[in-house]
Amino acid sequence: MNREVIVIGGGASGMAAAISAAEQGAQVTLLEKKEQTGKKILVSGNGRCNFSSTALSARRYHCSDEAFLDRFLTRFPAERVLARFRDLGLYAAERNGGYYPSSFQASSVNTVLQRALKTLDVSVRSRVNVLSVEKEEDGFIVRSESEAFHAGKVILACGSPAGVSDPKPFTAYDILKRFGLTAAPCFPALARLIGNNGYESLWDGVRIPGIVSFYGRTYEGEIQLTKDGISGIPVFQLAHDVNQALLDGKRPCVMISFLKEPSREELAAYLKEAKAATLTNALSFRDYISALLPKKLAMALFSGSSYEQLPLSALDETHTEEILQRIYAFSYPVQKSAPMKEAQVSAGGLLLSAVNDDFEVRSVPGLFVTGELLDVDGETGGFNLHFAFASGFTAGEKAGRP
Ligand SMILES: Cc1cc2nc3c(=O)[nH]c(=O)nc-3n(C[C@H](O)[C@H](O)[C@H](O)COP(=O)(O)OP(=O)(O)OC[C@H]3O[C@@H](n4cnc5c(N)ncnc54)[C@H](O)[C@@H]3O)c2cc1C
Predict the structure, then answer these.
(1) How many angstroms separate the Cα of 126 from the Cα of each of 108, 166, 193, 267, 297?
(2) Cα(141)–Cα(80) distance, rounded to whole angstroms?
(3) CA of 307 to the centre of ligand 1 (A)
């Protein structure tokens, strides 16, 4: 039996897979097309690497098979990823529900993974861009631009084109296709959203704690208003659904509430009070609103409105309703997503139905697919790295066994 395992891709998932396969006694080669492994780990979590979460649940992901993911997360919860890292000499610290290395430095995660690869004698080959994988009698032949490698088992852990500026094309989907495997379409899943609706040049630079929602999904947090659209963590969380709607030819609008506090009801009452109070009833609406919202946002939402110059006492019910609507239920039409190279994670990839619980491709025994190359993308907060590490450790353990 050929005990050689080739792991293609030296990211989170590939390094985890290589470590687990080598622990089982397999002879492991890790092929990475960049000059260095773990580049995305280094930039993750703003350089702090939020690698798992206290709130793991299949519902925090988009994927084609929620039952599969449920089963997998039960089998491989956060505690197990933390324990695997503890074995490597890395200890976790929890902050706001996310697990980070205790150093709060992403480089610590890379360091312990690379150290373990070395200790386990994994042959790490960088600058090897794999172009094809073919089945042969007792395993696989893996070809790069200039070399061929043979192995009994292959783990494809190539990630996705998200967050990568690479002149070389992303070949993993073609590799899957040549095995007759279907990948769901790839598009940005955690990314800012772009519009061109006339507000953008006015509100550029504003950051405000608010609420965004789209088709039943609602997220709170700091909304960043930019010169060409909307950004920030809560906006990222909607990107999968919004971009799917764009792909389906729809014209998606994100609903924005620019204020969490005061609530809509509270502000309606305050406005009524202000219309009657001696100190405020003669104020123009423009002056009143620019102390309630960031000035640039107030300009973007209300400049040119018919009531901008009116004194508060002259505002009628219709004006009040429109003002509340603009602040608490602002409908922002999205025209496109930020480009893939700016996204944190992509949607799409090999359908979960194509692999078994060890991430081995059902129709191609000996071939495993892990991490972001699968049709699984999570919210921000450690969900994506958790899945990348956990699927890598799982596939590696199975592939490395005799
Ligand atoms: C800016 C940013 C911040 C992020 N922050 C977080 C965070 O805090 N928490 C979180 O959970 N997730 C975060 N993510 C997402 C997370 O980093 C990814 O989901 C995760 O790294 C996916 O791991 P992976 O191993 O599947 O893929 P990757 O990490 O992308 O690794 C794939 C590797 O395969 C290599 N490769 C690709 N094709 C080939 C080929 N043909 N031949 C050889 N090698 C190949 C690539 O060069 C790459 O090194 C962030 C992503 C970005 C871009």
Answers:
(1) 20, 15, 34, 59, 48
(2) 33
(3) 50
Rounded to the nearest 10 degrees, the angle between the axes of helix 12-23 and helix 383-400 is 30
Closest CA to 242 of 372, 335, 351, 325: 335
> 345 C-alpha vs ligand 1 centroid, how far in Å?
8
> 399, 402, 397, 401: which is closest to 84 by C-alpha?
397
Q: With a 6 A CB cut-off, is 98 part of the ligand 1 pocket? A: no
What would the DSSP string read from start to end of 44-68? GGGGT---EETT--GGGEEES-HHH
Element of type H or E holding 28:
strand 27-31
User: What residue owns the CA closest to ligand 1's atom 29?
Assistant: 11
- Consecutive H or E run containing 141: strand 139-144
Ligand 1: centre distance to CA 76 (Å): 20
How many CB atoms are located within 10 Å of the residue 249 CB? 6
How many Cβ atoms sit within 10 Å of the Cβ of residue 119?
Answer: 11
pLDDT tens, residue by residue, 212-265: 999 999 999 999 999 999 999 999 999 999 999 999 999 999 999 999 999 999
| pTM of the complete model beyond 0.90 | yes
Structural domains in the chain, sorted by start: 4-188+344-400 (3.50.50.60), 192-337 (no CATH)
Q: Give the number of the atom of ligand 1 that is nearest the alpha carbon of residue 343.
A: 53
257 CA → ligand 1 middle, Å: 33
Backbone torsion region of residue 182, taken as left when φ is above 0, otherwise alpha when ψ lies between -120 and 50, otherwise beta: beta
* Strands in 39-129 per DSSP E: 52-53, 61-63, 92-95, 98-101, 123-125
- In this structure, which residue's CA is closest to atom 19 in ligand 1? 384
pLDDT (tens digit, 9 = 90+) per residue, 38-65?
A: 999 999 999 999 999 999 999 999 999 9
> Exposure string (b/e) for 42-68, b if CB count within 10 Å is 16 or more?
eebbeebbbbbbeebebebbbbbbeeb
Contact at 8 Å (CB) between 369 and 350? yes
